[in-house]
Amino acid sequence: MSWIDLAVLALLGAGLAFYAAGSLGLLRFPDTASRLHALTKADNLGLGLVALAAAIYGGSLAVAAKIALVWLFAVIAAGTTSQLLARRARLDEARLDDADSAPDGGLR
Amino acid sequence: MTFAFDLILCLMILGTAAIALFVRDALAAIAFFIAFGNLMGLAWLGLDAVNVALAEIAIGAGVTGVLLILARARLLALGDAATSTGSPLLLRLGALAACAGFVVLLAAAVLSIPPESGLDRVVAPLMPGLGIENRVTGVLLAFRAYDTLLESFVLLGALVAVWSLAPAGAWPGRPADPGMADAPMRRVAGTFGQLLLPVALVMAAYLVWAGSDLPGGAFQAGTVLAGGLLVAGMGGTIGLPSSDQPLLRAALVLGPVVFLAIGLAGVAAGGLLVYPAGLAKALIVTIEYTLFLSIGVTLALLVAGPPMPGASDPDPEGKG
Q1: pLDDT digits over B118-156, tens only?
Q2: How far apart are CA A82 and CA A92, in angstroms?
Q3: What is the ipTM of this complex?
Q4: Residue in B closest to A88 by C-alpha
Q5: What CATH number should be reported for the domain whose range is B1-84?
Q6: Are B185 and A80 an interchain contact pair (Cβ–Cβ within 8 Å)?
Q7: Do A80 and B192 touch (CB under 8 A)?
Q8: Could you tell me which residues come within 8 angstroms of residue A21 by beta carbon, excluding any fewer than 6 positions away?
Q9: Is there a contact between A87 and B195 if contact means CB atoms under 8 Å apart?
């Protein structure tokens, strides 16, 4: 096993560990904001490490450049969607709070 | 790919399919359906069918997923709970028997094909005459062009069907504004749309061009274009056009009409959909680029839905 194989394995392993931590956070954290927090941080880092492993494994600059583009757009898309999800969750919470303070304690 | 990877992938495909079928909540079912489509794409990739993998992920998981989510939202708005209710035992047993019979027939048909009799052997010697190298594109646009020509008209027909659902008085208006109502969300989505739409255009143009020799093609590229247009629409970067705009109508029919015209002109060269020798690649690329534009705009408008009354638009120019 060459040094390159070892590096690929180490990066993949570290990436998967971050994915696992993110998934654990998604399952275990109590509210949307902290779930998003766990997911976005861990997944961005996980994806970066896995992409780096794939780029090294690919072995050519052209492949590495394509993987870098995939990584870039995945990160931008993930950042955008998590912003939108967080905003949506906040709006829903505000609506629920309004409903709670209403005299009939109504439902939404 | 190793056996362990294939095994895990198969189990995950079966698992996501089962959950998508059996879960009661429609949103969860859709989420698992999208995951199922992406895993199927991986499986096609493992079989070296990159064209199918692209189509499965872009159309099977992507566009269909969006359509299902929108259909659910529409059902909820109409007062339907959008959860599955129990069906009679007899109906379930009947469905099980029909599906099992179909699976057995399909498996028997697939297993009866000798492994060495693939279409590839027939197509490979014919490819040099076309001047392109992607055999899937060769089959779709030269050897079985009839299918693709009809498909492009079927897609147009689907949009006509959706448009025919426009409420009275809404025709010929715009579809409901897909833009997000909340201003901060709209700004975030708008920034993303401004970035994504030009990139999607470049990416789609590349996919068509690469489709001659590498995996890619008009349908995959059209889906990328539709995705870019829809994301830009959600952020209010572009407004959806009114359905009677001449430019829009032209974009919708351009691909099928150019395809049909080139196919008919082939009669002079020996028959319907026959390309004159030496011109094959140029004609195929022309058809693919015009088809890509029409498919992209049609898919985006299919997702946007029929014209709605009072769907006003901040940008009267619309998209061209």
Answers
A1: 777 788 888 888 888 888 888 888 888 888 999 999 999
A2: 15
A3: 0.79
A4: B185
A5: 1.20.120.1200
A6: no
A7: yes
A8: A38, A42
A9: no
Residues B255, B292: Cα–Cα separation, whole Å: 7
Angle at B180 between CA B174 and CA B182, to 5 degrees: 135
**DSSP string of A28-52?**
H-SSHHHHHHHHHHHHHHHHHHHHH
Task: List the domain boundaries for chain B.
Answer: 1-84, 85-115, 134-320
CA distances for B57 relative to B63, B69, B164, B205, B298, angstroms = 9, 16, 29, 18, 18
The nearest alpha carbon in chain A to B189 belongs to A80
Element holding A77 (H helix, E strand): helix A61-101
d(CA B232, CA B222): 15
Q: Are B273 and B132 in contact (CB under 8 A)?
A: no
**A94–chain B Cβ distance below 8 A for any pair:** no
Q: What residue spans define the domains of chain A?
A: 3-101
Whether this prediction's pTM lies above 0.80 is answered by yes
Pick out chain B residues at pLDDT < 50: 313-320
Identify the H or E element spanning B233. helix B218-234
pLDDT tens digits along A14-47: 999 999 999 898 889 888 888 888 888 888 889 9
**Any residues with CB less than 8 A from the CB of B10 and at least 6 apart, and which?**
B43
A80 with B189: Cβ contact below 8 A: yes
Does residue B192 belong to the interface with chain A, where contact is any CB pair within 8 Å? yes
Give me the pLDDT at residue B294, please: 95
CB contact under 8 A, B189 and A88: no
